[in-house]
Sequence to fold (479 residues):
Amino acid sequence: MRDFAGYLGRQATDRLNRYAEQSALFYRILRQIVVNPRAGRRLRLRIVVEQIYFTAVEALWILIPISLLLGSMMILQFSGVAAQHDLGKITVALLIREFGPLVTALVVILRSATAVTIETGYMQVLREIEALELQGVDPLDILFVPRMIGITVSLLCLITIFCIVSVLGGYAIAWVLTTLPLQNFLAQIGKAVEPIDIVAVALKALFFGLGITVISLYYGLSVRKGITEIPVMTSRGAVACLFYCVAVNFALFAAFFL
Amino acid sequence: MALIELRDYAHTPTGRGKGLSKFSFSLSPGDAFSLHADRVDDAHLFLRALASLEPPEEGSYRFDGEELNFAKRRRLLAVRRRIGYLGVDAALIGNRTLRTNLLLGRYYAENRLDLSLGEDVLDLCRLFGIEDKLDLRPAQVAPEDARAAVIVREMTKGAEVFLVEQAFVNLPRQAVEMYIGMIRKMADSGVPFVYYAGLTQYDRLFKKRDIYIRDGVVSVV
Fold:
């Protein structure tokens, strides 16, 4: 019993330490974004653009088919179970508010968060971060800040694209392939979307972006012993990102819609 | 005044070494030290300590008379930029080309991206035979070329002190001779440096004084 209590205590302490370290990392990156030092500003901007290209532009080829398939499938399902006048509301409540941000976050975690953890882990093991410092370059400026800005901006754009494509594309596919009554669907969506929905989705994008970046960087920086530690940290980082997104999604849902 | 001064510095072991027991050491302009150690890891740790890459577990690190606070990262960066560290673990940034690696410090410091390599840098690249590989990434070139790029980067960044470790590692013989010649020229010009040759014939090429590390105890002769 005593051993078990000790185990629980150690786990709780480890977890608290981890959260404290992640918060410290988040604070340092955020402060650096606010300070925006002149040194390396152009370099930083270039890396932000590269990050947006990698996280948002290159992900479109995956996100658009997923949003089309999910959108059409859900619209067809909803139209089967909902009365015609509820279809717009259900689509907004589930597809735009919930599935859109979560599925997009999942795509970003699978593509970018894992890549960031692996890259940071390698840089840590191969002493590349040290090499930057030896040139007088602050790793916060050209590694961490651009990742945070790039991933957050990308998430915001990708979630918007997911919502538009899933609703419009899903509607188009359902309209072409089936004979279900979908009259006035778009007008219903237009009526169902309220400003609070847009604020909630934008906040989700913001919190997801900040959290995914900090968690993936943190697990990359946690690699100490060698290259064999990188897969373990990548897996832990991805799972932690997923839990974080689901928890934030629920917290924002509770804050806005309960 | 000493450029680098370690006072009562101590560090726990790394790798297979014995660590560094409490010692004091200073490196001033004109100093040239040859480092001898019974364990490679201790010699490596000593050079990293001088490069400010291993914060002291006891004691202090002074650069140019100022005690360094290792919690203040931006101040540390300014110091590290002034140290030419040519340890065996000195790396290049893997996802950038050799050219970008050579320019990164200037890109950052001068806040410009339109820079080109200076003549001195290009001359060294030619000497080491990497001029036509500058637009490749480190993983796309041979380890010798990546090592040469590290040497060019450190030699041309305007460092005021050099810490050199095992010059022969990952370099063809011809390049080693040239590299040794460059270090010798540097020593003649009064730039302070510490050189660890390992167990090679390069051990006594340009030493003025010796540093011995035996069982983690540092002594200067």
Q: What stands out?
A: Chain A is about 85% helix and 0% strand. The first helix of chain A runs from residue 2 to 35. The two ends of chain A are 40 Å apart (CA to CA). Chain A has a mean pLDDT of 90.
